[in-house]
């Protein structure tokens, strides 16, 4: 069982790179994804819409999306839009990984004794 942690190293201008990375991972068959958005100071409606769509796609495929290290402004957006309960939110990527591992185990997914295979991706603009 794999869990992929994707860390955005940039702001909203770099969000298209995150979309490209996550869509590629989903197309490659990844089903458990943690998005570490600690560097993202705010979120626009397009980014929010993408997260909603990605969550739905992963759920349809038996997977799960978790969001980690959200800035307070993004948490406020989720509260104001009544979407906070739609997402699994965690203070750290490691807590999100543990939660996804527990969820997979509770769903009958075989988790190796050593734990899941954690794949990490950094998304950042190259100069």
What secondary-structure arrangement, pairings included, does this model have?
Layout: E1 2-8, H1 15-27, E2 32-36, H2 45-60, E3 64-68, H3 72-80, E4 88-90, H4 93-106, E5 117-123
Parallel strand pairs: 1-2, 1-5, 2-3, 3-4
Q: Work out the number of β strands.
A: 5
Main sheet record: 5 strands, parallel
Task: Kindly report the spatial arrangement of strands forming the biggest sheet.
Answer: 4-3-2-1-5
Strand content: 15-25%
Which residues form runs of ≥5 with pLDDT under 50? Answer: none
Structural class label: alpha/beta
The gross shape turns out to be: globular
Textual characterization of the structure:
The protein has four helices and five strands, in the order βαβαβαβαβ. The mean pLDDT is 93. It has one domain: STAS domain (Transcription Regulator spoIIAA), CATH 3.30.750.24. The protein has 127 residues and is an alpha/beta fold. Helices cover 41% and strands 21% of the residues.
Notable traits:
single chain, 127 residues, Transcription Regulator spoIIAA, 5 strands
Question: Summarize this, please?
Answer:
This protein has four helices and five strands; from the N terminus they run βαβαβαβαβ. The chain is α/β, with parallel strands linked by helices and 127 residues long. Strands 4-3-2-1-5 form a five-stranded parallel β-sheet, with helices on both faces.
